[in-house]
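User: Round two. Same drill as before: sequence, then structure, for each protein.

Assistant: Same drill it is. First protein:
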Amino acid sequence: MNVKILFVSLLAALALTACHEEKKPVEKVQQLPSYDQPLKGDSTIYGLACEGCSDTVVVLLPNDGSDPVTYNILKASRQHRVLGRIKTGDWIGVVLNKTNKHEADIVIDLDQLKGVWCYIVMPQLRGHETMTKQEQAQAMRQMSDSLKNMYFIPREYGFWLKRQWEATSVGYVQESSTLAEESPVVYPPLGWFIAWHIWNGKFVMISGKPKYSGKDNTVVGYESVSYDTCSIDYLDDDSLVLTDREASRSYYRKNDINDVNRRAKAIAAMRSQKALEQTTE
């Protein structure tokens, strides 16, 4: 009997100890929506533009394989809500009028939206957050022109919108951590884009950190996932304007992704070469 009492007491002590162990927070791993499924709450109709599209109507072949449907877009055209140049065979999205199901409020040429879109960013002085404008101006005056030409190099940031709602960040310039830490300037952080979607006529960019499997190093989900929603104010062959809660931003198209940041990469390579030569002297 005494042995049983001792055994039960030990179990109780172990259970109590386990209850007081500190539990580390586990970050939630999220799965992104499938490429063939819309975002929750999205009422956009997707399909292919058929022959017969004009400034007044769009003819849509729905993704479900049903018969083509003709929608009136006269009002949308006048309000500049036909985004892109609709061509026969293009993948498009249509947002219908809430009271008239034969009228489209928004039409987006999704094939034209795909591609590489960039904008220009400039570096700022390291530690500018704690400096007044006068102090920043003084630091710039004290910097030689050669240093300015070396470090104040514009870079191209942006994203690559691919098929099946996949997205990739554009604008990374590889540079050694040592050189980056010694640089008198810093660039804005570059978002880690992984997917894009349309939600009721708005553009949604999804960013997050990939979570890899320990077995075969495949992506099993994403951490710190965020959804940034913007209105599409303008879309043409070479121009895109997106607006979020804070501001509007204009993008230009890059036809060759290898041309992105060509000058910035060349400068970074030159700095790395000079640093290597100095260490070997």
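Second protein:
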Amino acid sequence: MLNQVVLVGRLVKDPELRYTNDNKQVTNVTLAVNRSFKNVETGEYDTDFIRCTLWSGIAQTTTEYCSKGSVIGVKGRLVTRYQEFEPNKRINYPEVIAEKVTFISTNNKKNEELPN
């Protein structure tokens, strides 16, 4: 059995580093991933929005060097989460637990502030 996902997309908002109760670093990001084919009806490329969870050093580094619009690659495993709105009404959605993140094009605000 194999559960491996590789995505390349843009961050839809700035990542925010949080800490769990046992002091582990975590951030959730959403990647906008364009499909490789055009929608027949509109003639435009559709985009999928994929939620990813990053832990520990990956979370810290991504938060430090990336911001909204950064292009990153994520390699990880797919899990199914659910959110319950009312009794007997829940929505399932996929989420990727990141094992590796590659920075392809960052919008690092810190680099913009450095003197020439």
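DSSP finds two helices and six strands in the chain.

User: Perfect.
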